[in-house]
Amino acid sequence: MTEPRTIAESDLHAYVDGELDALTLTEIERWLAEHPEDAAKVHSFMLQKRLMHQVFDEGLDAPWPAGVEEMLTGEPRHAWWPGWTKIAATILLLVVGGATGWGFTTFSAQQAHAEKTFVESALNAHAVYSHDTQRPVEFTIDSGQEKLLLDWLSARVGEELMTPNLAGAGFALMGGRLVADKGMPAALLMYQDGNGKRVTLYCRKAFEDKDSTFKVISEHDMVAFYWTDGPLSYALTGEMPRGDLLYLAQMVYKDIDS
Length: 258
Hints:
The protein is of the alpha+beta class. About 45% of the residues lie in helices and about 20% in strands.
């Protein structure tokens, strides 16, 4: 049997950019299913691509600064200036672009504390409620009641929530409850598979003001992947190998972002 080739990072970028043929696409997707670290890279590349479009797409049709087009297309005034006006114009465009789109990102102690508080709250909520045999959720999902749960939690959290569908991985929504996150309301949604294994999705108003890639934390037997997407921050927590939980986290992300 022929061993599968090693997938290079250039292959992952081609996958994100939609540049693969059907056969190679299938090969890459099979590789990602078995290599969670590369799957996390792909998620990061996709988010970066989306953020770049959000930042720069609106500026594609913006008028050029006065005089730049003339500098790029016009003839130099002196023959002994071989291309210097075009170089200067290019530099000017880069400076203008930098002023409107790029900046240095700072990571403050306040941000680090907010992130730590959020994920600790998610881990604590999972530890307390996922092993509760009497009442793991405050609002049990029965026929036709999912919308009632979402309306109630959305009103309390202050943002519109949704319940990702994890049926493809064998997990069904049990229900949810309202929990407290340092004085802020948060929602806890609980899923269970046919073997009784449970995962929880913890969400509240975003603890940071920009979208983020997946981050992971392990504590005791628990693993949590957490990220920010739009107005909400999410943490998916379970007691399983990282690769298995990453697969579920990607399903959640895709469903929320669709």
